[in-house]
Amino acid sequence: MALLKMPEKLLKVIWNGDFDTICVYEDGTWGIDVKKELISLSKSEITVSSKIEAMNHLMMLSTKLLEATTEEYAELAKKKYEASHDLWKESQLISKEFAEVKGKAFSETPFEYSPFPTSEEQFEEYYGQYFLDYLIDIQHQLTFEHKANFDFSIYVLGDASYGFGSADNYNMDAPYNAKIAFFVADDKWRPEYFIGENHPLFLKIKNEVKRVSKLAINEAIVSVSNDLHEWFRKQFGYSMM
Question: Please, which domain of life does this record's source organism belong to (predicted)?
Answer without folding.
Answer: Bacteria
